[in-house]
C-alpha cells in the first residue's frame, strides 16, 4: 500500500482496496465537481481514491483555498490515518454506516453547493442500499464501483436476463450509464467477481408519473419475484390481484395477456400501476403490518428481492 499504510482489508466490512492508479484516475475524473460544489467520498479506506479526488477540489487560479472533501468511513481504523495523510483541513471525516447516512443533511451541513457529487468504491455486500440512499440528496451525479453483475442489472433493458425490479426502480429515478469494467487485479485482495463503474444522474422526479411510488415498488417486487410465471399469475399469487383484471390491463397497454414481468418497459410499468391502483390501493391498505413493517418499508426500495440475489463475492455474508 502506498505511503506506508498497509492495513489489512476487513472481510466483515466488504473491503477490497483499489490500488490501480489508472483506474483511480479515471474514477476521479468522472467525479470531478463543478465550481462551487463539493464532493462526498464513501468508503475511502486508506485514501487511494482520495488522493486523486483532492486535486479536483483546488482552485486552478489559486485565488481561493481548496474546498474540503467529505468522506464517510465505517472502519474506525481509518479516520486518524486519513487526517494524518491528507491533513484535517483538506478532509472532513464522517464516521458511520454509509447505508444509514442522511446525505441531504450532510450536503447542507458541509455547504457542498447546489450540484454535489458522491463517489465511492462501494462494499459489495451493501452497494445497492447505499446507492439508493445517496439519491435522496439529489446530487449532480453518483459515481460508484460495484460488481459488474449489479451494474448490468442497473442498466439492463426490457427482455434481457439482467432486467428486473432493480433496473426499473433505478432507471425511474436516474439516468444510468456503465462507464467501464475493472478487473480483479486492480484490488487488494482480488474479489471473486469483475467490477464496473456506474454513473447515475438523478432525475428531478420519477421518469414516469405513477399514483404512488411505494405501491409501484410492491408491484415490481411481486411481478419479478416470480419471474418464471406470467405477470397476471405472479401478481395474483402475491398481491391477490384478480388475474383477469391484470390480463385486461396488459392487453389495453398493448401487451399479450400472458406477458411476463421482464417484457414491460418503464412506461408500461407506470401505466400498469395507474390501471391497477384502484384495486391495489385498498388491498394493500387492508394488510396487517408486521411489527417491523415500517423498517422493511423504509428499506424496500434499497434491497434486491430474493428472486434477484446479489452475486457471490468473497465478502457476502
Characterization of the model:
- With 317 residues, the chain is an alpha/beta fold.
- It has 2 domains: 10-202, 3-Layer(aba) Sandwich (Rossmann fold); 213-300, rRNA adenine dimethylase, C-terminal domain (Helicase, Ruva Protein, domain 3).
- It has 12 helices and 9 strands.
- Strands 4-3-2-5-6-9-7 form a 7-stranded mixed sheet, sandwiched between helices. A two-stranded antiparallel sheet has the order 1-8.
- Helix 8 packs across helix 9 (231-239) and helix 9 (231-239) crosses helix 10.
- 40% of the residues are buried.
- Mean pLDDT is 87; it is low at 1-5 and 293-317.
- Per CATH, what is the topology of the largest domain? Rossmann fold
Rg is 21 Å
Oligomer: single chain
Major sheet size, sense and barrel closure: 7 strands, mixed
- The fourth-level CATH homologous superfamily of the largest domain is Vaccinia Virus protein VP39
- The tally of beta strands, per DSSP, is 9
Give the terminus-to-terminus CA distance: 26 Å
* Uncertain residue ranges: 1-5, 293-317
Mean pLDDT: 87
Strand content: 5-15%
User: What is the CATH top level name of the largest domain?
Assistant: Alpha Beta
Helix segment tally: 12
- Please state the overall shape, judged from the principal axes of the Cα atoms: elongated
| Fraction in helix | 25-40%
Number of domains: 2
